[in-house]
Specification:
The chain has 779 residues and is α+β, with helices and mostly antiparallel strands. The chain has 23 helices and 26 strands. The strands form 9 sheets. It has a 5-stranded antiparallel beta sheet with strand order 7-6-14-13-12, with helices on both faces. A 5-stranded mixed beta sheet has the order 20-26-25-22-23, covered by helices on one side. A 3-stranded mixed beta sheet has the order 2-1-5, with helices on one face. The protein is elongated and about 145 Å long. Bound molecules: zinc ion (2 copies).
């Protein structure tokens, strides 16, 4: 800039001093850095992990306004826009006297305004000032443009232009226009597209891709001709460019993984670029597999599904499907099924097993009673409605047995387990342990797919809590390590879950499931309202939920058959390479102990056969096998003896496996032979010393008329007894048939047919109470 002439000619107001003063002020004004030109908000760009655009949000003033994503503007666009708007841009100082002269001459000749003569820099100033086009404003824009050029490089000015140029409607800047009209980022343009983007801002409200399309094409082709004439490209390129049709009116803006981007936006501070953890390829696989699966569910009357795919090592969310169709009003598609809290079905069982492994005395092989069980009026049932007597803990998970799971929870304590769930990060558990009761383990509590998948991630992290991560470049927050259960327990449970049967055809043909090992668990909520499947291996942790958002149950809904197949397909499709090293037993976290072969508990003094079993290193409670007992019997006789009755008799010791009466009863029902436990010698004085207990209800000879509830349904009869010893077990028989065993709370609620009956209750010592009663039904 040469300021000398400007100072020398400034004497119109008379005084030389005035001129010098004005000159200095002007000089200072030119030298001061300008304030920020544009005070506007930008659209937030939500990107996948590699920067691919998932979603463009409106700016605060409801524009789609974006700076170009690439550092360098495409060459073809630069050529087109400079040939169209400002040929001498690279050499002029902000104003172009030649252009002004040319424009004035053209306007005088035409008798109206046909050309402006503004430089790109002046347009950048005008777009910021938004003042009417008058000669005074033009003068101010010219001065400011010169000043702007002093402080900005040519590249910066071009970038300002490309960022703020109006492109029709609420589209601002070439990047936003590229997404709107071409459906892709502003790179790799054709000459025709470059020319279109140069002419589009000329009068965007009148001539755009919606109206005045033919005029727009004429303008584009005219610019192409100018560039051809100026030898920007050859004749063949020119001919091809002119043949290229205009793009369609407008495309929908990117809106991939809508529920996920909403979640990220709701949890992030406002910023221009949100680089999320989502992987567009994984997302495409997820959507591609979910669609046909959703259609087959729909034929069964199940209208929705949700799924989440997580990188096991980092906890980064790579795929996220909140519903089958975000835009479906009928199926409530805007509900995010990943975040919705639903009944957990059996999905909490593996966590309970992990906790009881840590506490002991349970091992993988420990037998848990799978027998008719009552806790007051609560009588859990297996899905099969049958009992198997004893069930190994591994079977409790693999067959998803309810009765032994409830018994385990009763042993572990509802309050303890609820506290663990809170620690794990389940936020929807707002009721008290008393309110949940033992149904907590059968789906009595609600959790989201997000929370459950996050919880399962801890099995891959040595039992430590691991958060799900949504943003790729997030400040490394110091996560406070929370050890939910031991690394040893995590490994043992994982080994059990790897043996959970695959659904349908995959069970018999393991090669179809990729022969790839992964651990998984399914769940079906009460009333068949929710079907769950969550699986994990060293690479992926995947959760799937199926059901109806309005909570309608469906007889065809089950975790194995509704959610399982999609989970398997996802593992098959997403998994790369071999998985042979997974899972690895954690160093020093397990120790081998000797266990009774028959009961699975640590070997007791009388267990005949033993087997080594791994337990967590720090397993706390040790209790030996309670079922192998050494007793004294009369030699050659049928009776058991005790110190009160053995005098004068030949006796010997024998070892017997004595299962609880309830298990023996189930075995007898199934025709499985049970060791006969010898009866005590009749007439032994200790027999009458059986501890005191009382049958509270019914008293012998009672006539019972069960009341009806509000729905007119006859209520069950509740029988109860009281034992002086707190740890006593009582065995209940109705008309000679074993019903159940009770501990702690000796009450059972059962349905009884009309007529005469006999209730018998026995304690472990053989003490017996009998109450005949009559049941009357009044209609
Ligand atoms: Zn034993
Ligand atoms: Zn005796």
């Amino acid at each position: 800039m040469k300021l000398g002439p400007l100072l020398a000619t400034g004497r119109s107001c008379g005084g030389r001093q005035v001129a010098i003063g004005l000159g200095i002020i002007t000089l200072v004004w030119f030298m001061l850095p300008p304030g920020s030109l544009y005070d506007c908000s930008f659209s937030t760009v939500v990107q996948d992990r590699t920067g691919r655009v998932l979603r463009l949000c409106l700016s605060k003033d409801t524009q789609v306004r974006l700076p170009p994503l690439q550092e360098v503007l495409p060459e073809k666009y630069l050529a087109a826009v400079l040939h169209y708007e400002d040929r001498r841009f690279q050499v002029h100082p902000g104003v172009d006297p030649l252009a002004i002269l040319g424009a004035t001459w053209a306007n005088v000749r035409a008798g109206r305004r046909v050309r402006g003569g503004s430089t790109l820099t002046m347009q950048v100033i005008r777009m910021a000032r938004r003042k009417p086009r008058t000669y005074l404003n033009k003068l101010i824009e010219g001065l400011q443009a010169v000043r702007f050029e002093l402080h900005h490089s040519k590249e910066e000015i071009l970038r300002h232009y490309a960022t703020h140029v109006p492109m029709g409607g609420n589209i601002v800047g070439v990047e936003a226009a590229s997404w709107r009209y071409l459906g892709r980022p502003f790179v790799d343009l054709s000459w025709a597209e470059a020319a279109l983007f140069a002419v589009l801002p000329n009068n965007p409200s009148l001539i755009n891709l919606r109206q005045g399309r033919s005029l727009l094409r004429v303008k584009r082709d005219k610019l192409l001709k100018v560039m051809f004439d100026r030898k920007v490209f050859d004749a063949a390129t020119y001919a091809l460019a002119c043949l290229e049709p205009l793009p369609p009116q407008a495309r929908p803006l990117p809106f991939t993984a809508p529920h996920f981007t909403e979640l990220v936006l709701s949890r992030s501070s406002p910023q221009q670029y949100l680089t999320t953890t989502l992987d567009l390829e994984v997302q495409m696989v997820l959507e591609h597999l979910a669609r046909p699966h959703g259609e087959s569910l729909r034929r069964q009357g199940i209208t929705n599904l949700a799924a989440i795919v997580v990188d096991s090592a980092s906890g980064k969310v790579r795929g996220y499907l909140g519903s089958l169709d975000y835009f479906s009003h009928q199926d409530q598609g805007q509900v995010d099924g990943v975040l919705a809290r639903r009944s957990t079905g059996s999905l909490l069982k593996p966590f309970l097993v992990a906790k009881v492994f840590d506490r002991g005395p349970f091992t993988v092989n420990s037998r848990i009673q799978d027998v008719p069980t009552f806790y007051g009026t609560f009588a859990p049932q297996n899905a099969s409605k049958t009992y198997q007597g004893f069930a190994r803990i591994s079977e409790v998970l693999q067959k998803s047995l309810n009765v032994p799971a409830v018994r385990l929870l009763h042993t572990y304590g509802v309050e303890n387990f609820l506290e663990f769930l809170h620690q794990t990060g389940f936020r929807g558990l707002f009721r008290s342990a008393e309110q949940y009761g033992l149904t907590l383990i059968l789906g009595g509590a609600e959790a989201s797919l997000f929370e459950l998948t996050r919880a399962y991630l801890s099995f891959n992290h040595g039992g430590r809590r691991k958060d799900l991560v949504l943003l790729e470049r997030v400040e490394q927050q110091q996560e406070v390590p929370v050890q939910l259960f031991s690394a040893g327990s995590a490994h043992l449970v994982t080994e059990i879950l790897m043996e959970v049967p695959r659904p349908g055809i995959y069970q018999d043909q393991p090669h179809l499931s990729g022969a790839r090992s992964f651990a998984w668990k399914t769940g079906t909520s009460y009333g068949q309202k929710d079907a769950w499947a969550i699986g994990y291996d060293g690479q992926w942790t995947i959760g799937v939920w199926c059901g109806n958002f309005d909570g309608t149950g469906n007889a065809d809904l089950s975790g194995v058959t509704s959610a399982g197949p999609l989970l398997l397909h996802l593992f098959q499709t997403l998994s790369k390479g071999e998985n042979r090293t997974w899972p690895q037993a954690p160093d020093g976290e397990l120790r081998s102990i000797s266990c009774c072969m028959r009961s699975g508990y640590p070997t007791g003094p009388h267990c005949p056969e033993t087997v080594p079993v791994f337990v967590p290193r720090e397993q706390q409670v040790l209790r030996n096998c309670p079922y192998h007992q050494r007793i004294q019997v009369e030699t050659g006789g049928r009776y058991r003896l005790c110190s009160k009755c053995w005098e004068g008799r030949m006796r010997e010791y024998v070892t017997r496996f004595v299962p609880p009466a309830s298990v023996a009863a189930v075995y007898r029902d199934h025709g499985i032979p049970v060791d006969e436990f010898p009866a005590h010698l009749p007439g032994c004085p200790s027999d009458s010393a059986s501890e005191l207990f009382e049958l509270v209800y019914p008293v012998p000879g009672l006539t019972i008329s069960p009341p009806r509830n509000f729905d007119g349904v006859r209520e069950k009869v509740v029988f109860s007894a009281h034992h002086q010893r707190k740890t006593a077990s009582l065995f209940w028989f109705l008309d000679g048939h074993f019903i159940t065993e009770t501990q702690d709370d000796h009450a059972i609620a059962i349905e009884v047919s009309a007529g005469k009956h006999s209730l018998t209750v026995q304690d472990e010592q053989g003490g017996t109470r009998i109450a005949p009663f009559n049941l009357q039904i009044d209609d």
